[in-house]
Amino acid sequence: MSPALRDLKSRWAKLDRDLLPFAGEPENPTARRIVREQKEVTKLIHHAHAAEGEKAKKGGGDTSDLVVVGAGPAGLSAAVYGAREGLDTLLIDSDTKAGGQARHSSRIENVVGFPTGVTGTQFATRGLEQAERLGADTKFGVSVRRMAYDPQSGMKHLMLSDGTTIHAKAVVIAGGVQFRKMSFEGATDCPDIVYGDSEALKKRSRGKRAVIVGGANSAGQAAIDTAAKVPVTILLRHGEIGDKMSSYLVDQIESDPKINVEIGEVASVQTTAAKRMASVTLKDGKKIPCGALGLFIGAGPETDWADVERDDHGYIIVGRDGSTAFQTSVPGVFAAGDVRAGSIHRSIAAAADGAAAVSSTHEYLASVAPAGRANPAAGPRRPVPAVTEADKWMDAMDALDQEYPFTGFDGVAPDSRRGRENPPAGFLDVGPISTEALAPGDVFQDSSSAVYRVDAVKSAHGGKLRFHLTRPAHGVVPEDAVGSHTFEKGEKAGFRLLKPDTRHPLTNGLDFYKATMSQLQWKTHPDAQVTFELKNRSKTTRIADYVGVDELQERLDAFKHGWSSRELAYLGGLKTKDGSRPLFDPEFIAYLRSNSLPPITVGKDDTGELTVKTTGPWPLVTFWETVALSTTNDVYFENYAKKHHLNLADLRKEGDRRLSEKIKVLHEHPEIKLAEFGTRRRFSSDWQHHVIDRLQAEAPENYLGSSNIAASDDNGTSPIGSYAHEVEMVYAAIADKADGEGVTGPATATEHVLDDWRSLYGEDLGIALTDTFTTAAFFHAFTK
Length: 784
Fold this sequence. Notes:
Structural class: alpha/beta
Number of domains: 5
Distance between the termini: 69 Å
Oligomer: single chain
Helix content: 25-40%
């Protein structure tokens, strides 16, 4: 194991120890932060494992020890157990979110250790986070079209709906079941017919009665949950309410005056002119006025893609002929949860199935690969990727070794011998250094402070080591390069090996619209010099009473090196709305990579109030605004709480109470859409992330996303934002200095900004700000 990988695993283990005091407190802000950091370290461990000398897998796609199909309770449990026990685990689901049908449950009461129950959303989001923290890869929004089994190699090849193929030594099918559909006269395009989702049913009812069709537990849970908001009618085709429903649910339903049970079948629905539900008519002619119709009529498996033995209803048969428990008719393919024939269709039972299926998977893998499994305590692993461009490039360079001999590292990349300045890549033989010293992702700094990143490592002849290098920054050490080690090079000066960090040094305090604005500025006014100054406009609050000059300066200096490679990789991966191209020009990403932020100075004005000021190129200065404001707020509230002896736990408790009230209002008004733009005015970074996590988990129909780049990256969502008043004001100022050339001044600045904006982003991010100068000026430009 390389020192780099050993360091990462030690760091993961330390974070795990730090997490121990928070057992049973999944929503604790500190626990949330530790889990997020563990997930980032897990990604680095995945990357480092690819450099451990393993050969690339054949077939052109990723190869995993275990692929889990379906991210419901069974699939999540299988992914958690598989990853924790050292298997390269990939979890895929056709839905865009985890949880399956369980995600729609208002309360799951049979999970041991949760005496008040747990919501389906909590169950799903926590389970997914647990699987990812332990090392499982995930792939959502794709379905399996076909699975082929190769009896010679034992490999399973899964063809996905996105055109890719993945390869697995073992597969756990945990796809659960899909809701059965019903059709009614008059129901075309009515949004108030809901399948299996009590939260949606409550919202769609709009304060009116809800009608629920179904007689099993899911219908009973939905009725109890929905009755907290509106009256409920349960429709049974025949029989009694207790025929298929658990007694604890029957007792609650019979004692709730807002729930009544009737025998009948829906024949048609009546809607308003706006296609909203007005009533349902039963086959006996009775009409029931209502706001929504909830169908909880069971579900069936979708298993046609799996070439395994199934029963007459499509459920997968396991354990035939004394084979390993949970194994299907295909060796190394297992079934767990509701999709398995004979399962009892309960969330907790499905989760137990998933764990047991992984145990069967281990038995199978041991029988076909007795060389042993990965050490469960060694931390998470992932599939080794196929041959990279860097690998191919290094193979080609072997033939050039005699033509371009290079045995030292003195700050000049070898390709510059061909007359190219700042070459994008070069190869380097640094002498007899063990391959365990380095791994892809490591960062080098040479004697001139130029910084390079290792893309691949390969042993060369003569006991030397060869690297494929790229140059991510020039003349600066990036913020994510922390710690160092020097390898001496005989007569050469040597170099430092800088270990990457997974923190968000910049984007934790950065709103997305600063990045979109910066790209516009880089395209249109790259050399414009501007000044940003933070001034306190409050007449009653003095920042200087709680924030010291040196303290804030130290905090802000931590960001001066700009974007980390981790953050730039995320930014560079964002696509336009139609997904046809990168949102950010690769040359713009290179610009950010190659430039640190202008120096920023903290001081005091004549009144003793704090000031923050920086001057430099507009595309770089623009990033300081939300970073400086959020950091000042962070320090202010930290010191305010200390000075006034405030209990942070009490503050957070009160904050959660108020947030719960707001979420309650959102549940009552699904038409309200909410985007989080709190970075500049936040109480703290942890609290902002906590609020975002709760909004995403508890109000998914209302919550659109956050402007905070780091939070969006952590939560797997797209950041939100376009541009702010700053752009129009600077456009106007540039026009004033240019005597009206180009932009003609405040009266038309908004118009010119929008023209440039549309030429860069199309219609994706358009916004018109009416109040930059005066509303009159705006309407003068836009009513021509």
